[in-house]
Design a protein that fits this description.
alpha/beta, ABC transporter transmembrane region fold, Rossmann fold, 2 domains, 6-stranded mixed sheet, binds adenosine-5'-diphosphate, binds magnesium ion
């Protein structure tokens, strides 16, 4: 893969060290064979005294030590390379996610995606720690052995030269068929886990409809499929290693036969040469075979690397902010001119929206579910940037301002506010600037109508929420977000009103909250309750991404039939 090669090139020093170590290994292997043969030759055939072979024994010891050292350094270099590459990938991923967290989270790239990517980075390891060093080793060591053998006995060298290619050729053939099979296996695994998760999540529904048993059978079938796919891959792997073993044994046998014949019958070879060749032959084929197993490990790695690289290449259009300061103490005028926006091409789009929101106004966004109300809030808040048109704040383009200045001025209470992992107190406190006392937090919680509920919890404001903590309902989360807004005292409040009915008590608190926040802020609400709608200074009626009408409740009732219908349906006839 191109990118992996580039990464390799960037690691020149490690690569040189790998090449050097491989040369050393080749030399050490040949030297080891030389010393063993020399010792045996002298002791058994030449009847030399033990003391005369001591230098050779010493040499052998030294060579063995060198071999372990070289293997160690080689392994270390590989691990170092892998660690560096993984570190680089992680940094790139993090900076990518950091650069654009809001868009990413709108696309559902949450913690889950990050953790999948981080796992993928870990999988890249074996390419650099195993495959790559082995590849260098296998290109160098066999050649050195071959040279040594040729220098002693060219016939054996020729046999090696002819048989050697069979191993890589065979490996490539096997590799091709396993790749397809292992892809199938992965698909089966994905199908199995997908199905398992689906069923687990829908368990209550399935029980209620008496469909649990059928699904149990489906899970069983799916898991059996996965088992079969795994077994097929394993079978191929085992057969292939058997075949590789077979080829190399056959080749070694051939060399042994040749050497034996020439030594004993034709007396063309010395014992030294014959033995030397026989020791080196298995080393030669081993080195080739090791590349095979490293290749399998490397292949999985390459898949993971591909996934990570693709992710890195996928760029969302980031929202570009400027440097202008937004210095205001009261709500600004917000204007949308010919604003269009879509999450992705060809899908739902907000279409050519024009509107002006004067300071301190209370704006209600109404429309059917899916008409684009929440999307319009995303656009106004500056979380996403319009595909066309312009949003201006105090007659300046919104995106000319500093990002922080703008976000300091707004509170966005979305329909599913995010609670990070921590206590409720901490979750409310992020709304405040600087240090916030517990009294302030309690005050904010009271205004948001969630104080009672929190106090009724066993651990009160110290209750852990968010990931791994206690779950809160959508409405409760929204009230935590509302409490944040009370601490923050923004000049613009965007509120995606809960669709589900609230109890009277909560509803009243909510009304009061909004009213109080409204004293110092412009309020833009996605409204479902008639009360909010009727109280608004301006109602924006959305349909299918288009702004169908704007005006007060009375005006719209009188002039827009669709609006009247909607209100009638919502209120079961009591339009009031
Ligand atoms: P409303 O709030 O009026 O019910 P939304 O603004 O939430 O409507 O959604 C309008 C359309 O945009 C829907 O068709 C919805 O499927 C789509 N949509 C909403 N959020 C996203 C998103 N993050 N990515 C892609 N499409 C989205
Ligand atoms: Mg919505």
């Amino acid at each position: 893969m191109k990118q992996l090669k580039e990464i390799n090139r960037a690691q020149k020093n490690n690569m040189y060290s790998l090449v050097l170590m491989s040369f050393m290994l080749g030399i050490v292997i040949v030297a080891q064979a030389y010393f063993i043969v020399e010792i045996v030759d002298r002791v058994f055939l030449q009847d030399t005294s033990f003391s005369a072979v001591i230098p050779y024994l010493g040499g052998l010891l030294l060579v063995l030590a060198a071999r372990s050292l070289v293997t160690y350094v080689n392994g270390r270099t590989g691990v170092k390379m892998a660690a560096k590459v993984k570190g680089d990938f992680r940094k790139k991923l993090l900076s990518k996610y950091k650069r654009n967290p809001v868009q990413a989270s709108l696309k559902g790239q949450s913690g889950e995606k990050v953790s999948i990517m981080m796992d993928a980075v870990d999988e890249i390891d074996s390419y650099f720690s195993k495959y790559y060093p082995q590849m260098i080793q296998t290109t160098i060591v066999p050649i050195l052995i071959l040279i040594a053998v040729f220098s002693q006995n060219w016939v054996s060298g020729l046999i090696m030269l002819i048989t050697a290619p069979f191993i890589p050729i065979f490996m490539i053939i096997i590799g091709k068929s396993t790749q397809k099979k292992s892809e199938e296996q992965l698909e089966k695994l994905a199908a199995f886990s997908g199905r398992f998760l689906d069923i687990l999540q829908g368990l209550t529904t399935l029980k209620l409809f008496g469909r649990a048993k059928e699904q149990r059978d489906a899970i069983k079938q799916s898991s059996l499929d996965y088992r079969d796919a795994t077994m097929t891959v394993l079978k191929i792997a085992f057969v292939s290693s058997l075949m590789l073993e077979f080829i190399s044994m056959l080749s070694i046998g051939l060399i042994a036969l040749e050497v034996g014949l020439r030594l004993v019958i034709y007396e063309q070879l010395s014992f030294f040469t014959a033995f030397f060749v026989l020791i080196l032959a298995p080393e030669f084929y081993n080195s080739l075979k090791e590349l095979g197993s490293a290749f399998h490990a490397g292949r999985g790695s390459m898949g993971a690397a591909k996934k990570v690289i693709e992710e890195l290449e996928m760029t969302e259009q980031p929202v570009q902010w400027g440097e202008r300061r937004l210095e205001i103490n009261s709500p600004p005028t917000i204007k949308l001119e010919n604003v269009s926006f879509s999450y992705s091409e060809g899908k739902f789009a907000l279409n050519n929206i024009n509107l002006e929101i004067p300071p301190h106004s209370e704006v209600a966004l109404v429309g059917r579910s899916g008409s684009g109300k929440s999307t319009l809030l995303n656009v106004i808040s500056g979380i996403v940037s319009p595909t066309e048109g312009r949003i201006s704040v105090q007659n300046q383009s919104l995106f000319d301002y500093k990002e922080k200045d703008w976000f300091d001025h707004i509170s966005y209470i979305s329909q599913n506010p995010y609670l990070f992992s921590g206590t409720i107190e901490e979750n409310i406190a992020i709304g405040g600037r600087g240090i916030t006392t517990i009294e302030e937090i309690q005050q904010a919680a009271k205004k948001a109508g969630i104080n009672e509920m929190i106090k009724s919890l066993e651990e009160g404001f110290d209750t852990m929420v968010g990931e791994g903590g206690r779950g809160l309902s959508g409405g409760e989360k929204q009230r935590v977000a509302l409490a944040r807004a009370f601490l923050k005292k923004p000049t613009i409040i965007l509120f995606d009103e809960p669709t589900v009915g609230l109890d009277l008590q909560t509803e009243r608190i909510l009304q009061q909250s909004i009213k109080e926040l409204g004293k110092s802020a412009t309020i833009i609400t996605v409204a479902h309750r008639l009360h909010t709608i009727k109280n608004a200074d301006k109602i924006l009626f959305l349909e299918d991404g288009k702004l169908l009408a704007a005006g007060t409740h009375k005006e719209l009732l009188a002039s827009v039939r669709e609006y009247e219908q909607m209100v009638t349906v919502q209120q079961g006839g009591e339009t009031g």
